[in-house]
Amino acid sequence: MDLLITSPTGFSKERQYVCDVILKDWFGLDYRLVQSDRKDVCISLDEHSGEVCLPDSFFGQFESDANLWLDPKSLPVHALVSWDVAELSSLIAITSPILPVIYGSSQPTRSFSRNNSGAGNRIALPIDIFGSAFFMLSRYEEFATSVRDAHSRFSSDLSFALRAGVLMRPIVDEYVEVLWFALVEIWPQLKRKEHVSQTIVSCDVDRPFSHAGDLATSMRRIGGDILKRKSLVDAYESIAGSLRFRKRDYRGDKFRDAISKIMDLNERAGRSVAFNVIPEVSHSKYDQATNLRHPGMRALLSEIKERGHEVGIHPGYGTCDNEDAMASSFDVLRGELELAGMPSLTLGGRQHYLRWNERVTPILLEKNGMSYDSTLGFADRPGFRCGTCREFSLFDMKSRRALSLRERPLIVMECSVISRNYMGLGYTDEALEVMLGLKEACELMSGNFVLLWHNSHLTSADDLSFYTKLVA
């Protein structure tokens, strides 16, 4: 008993990709995609009457002008129209019944219909669910927009999601819930794959030790304590800490201690943590990696593995568009793990500084055998960059194929909310409310609340209080 998806002609690979994600991966249903000379997308079920129909607004816009593909003119308007989902049902689990329409009917409040005529039930929804999902999951707008920030990142300020007011809600997941409700309204015998909401915790270990580094690094740190922070106490601790590090004495090292705290707190919750490490320096200014063969680093990796946690990869600043640097990072980490008796054929992880070149980075990660990536959140704001809190396969726009690389979207990075460089909310009730609100939205969608908290940002009582509330 398969679903039959009948769509307009064109973009068969893109349509199959998004159908695979929603229908096969997320719902666990088999389907067939056929194309015909029509204007909308209709879903039917083998040997059963009824259908669910959707507009084809996203892909349909290219029928009259193929040159619009990846042109900024093809992006949705920021002032979205909205549809009150209560017209279909008040029982659909979404964050708000007033649902913004990314692509769909121009007058969605008057476009929904349910037909109970003799030919079987028919539901026509006003949202182009497949096209809108492709737009968000493929990061289409990033291919169509060339502006980037100082670190060559696509920032939330540039995004359609922020300007349209949908960054803080899992809009694709909400569309999917509407689609599912419509399907089972007509075919109640359908059963979907069960998803259980999880809190997935990761730590990008940019600086595993607070006093690591050569003599020049230590002198710069001490100079900063005196001249910038105007603290002789900090300068004394930097001197003492540097001496202890050289003696392989890591007691009292606040960054190293934070890693142990992260493991302790999450073990109490029955959860493992992914600790992503920088294998080697790819940029002299932005990478502060400790050599993986350093005795302290080897001991740390062994402890992480022995306690049942994950060692992941955090390719350095200069790897996101550099094939040789990326390959070297994977080789170095895999080689060290093998020497330590912890071989790993597949690795998950995240790009340093969340640097992501949509045309190159996912291809390089797949080429090096990465199993999942968790880079796709914005550095300057938390939220749903891809519109979802569910894991999915990435899409290569150039070769028009689904990658084996899975994306585990990043929902909250602590400094995005707290740091003065970004939202600047500090350790306030408002900051905690933002983080917990996103966690609740993920739970409502039976999705994954993916949290990144750096060990170098877990050194104060305020850090620990926030972190404990998020991972409890």
From TrEMBL:
Residue ranges annotated for the DUF7033 domain, each copy included: 125-211
Pfam families on file: DUF7033
Entry coiled-coil feature ranges: none
Signal peptide boundaries: none
Source organism superkingdom: Bacteria
Name assigned to this protein: Polysaccharide deacetylase family protein
Organism: Congregibacter brevis
